[in-house]
Design goal:
Length: about 300
Amino acid sequence: MKHERATEEIRELAALYALGSLTQHEARSFEIHMREGCSVCEAEFHKYEHIVAAMGFAVDEIPAPDYVRDLLLARIDRENRPVIAATAAAQAQIPESRTKQLKPDVQAAPQLIFSQPPQKRPSILAWTLTAVFAIAAAFMYITLKSEQDTNNRLQADYSAAKSDLDNLKTLLDVQRTRTGELDQILSIAGRAGSKVLRLSGQVTAPAAAGAILWDGAEGKFLAFGVLPPEPEGKVYQLWFLSPTSKIRAGRIKLSPNNRFFVSDFIPQDAANATIAGITLEPDNGSQFPTSPYYAIARITD
């Protein structure tokens, strides 16, 4: 089965294969798996293969201690003693007449023995280097895994901090918006000649509520309050009504918490308006109000 991405198990298997630490059966299975075309496992193996190859050049060659040579010579001397003793015993059993004939051969025996190539045994240096490489590889693997875990933790901390920062910015924006709205309300409410019109919810929306600040001297109005969520494809619209006309005062956009805040100039033909009302209209607005009214405020002198 081919893998789509590298997992921790795949990385560990590739590292052990590159170090030659798998059993013969495990190594054979991994080789067959790579030959079957798993590019993910093959890429991980080549990555660790380069690391293992580089480790050999990262360690300086260390000369063998002097005592290793002494141990080697003592071992050779110990292995040759039984052969020399057996040769001497054989010579003692041969008659003197034949000893002279065999003497040249006996003298050649030690040369024959030492001419044989000694049995190859792993040197202490080779075992030492192998152990050093294995320890270094394990240390590098642990270090890389630790760095990866640290990077993942830092990435998670960064994402959490960024999310907190975004939330804080949103809260600050909301606070600035509310502060700006409050400044506008206080500015109009504190001006001489301004009027406060109370918006009352009607039968279709009894929970609707709000107010309209009417500043006739400056020719401005400010409407704010809460309304039911508008259906899809619909929008609330504000109207100023006089005995002879119905004047549009703009569409109302609700915030996520169903609140609204509208500030604009009073239309010139709404100077004689006696009622302000809010209706629910199509998304692009209407030329004339559509019943029923959701909230109404009376404009009094």
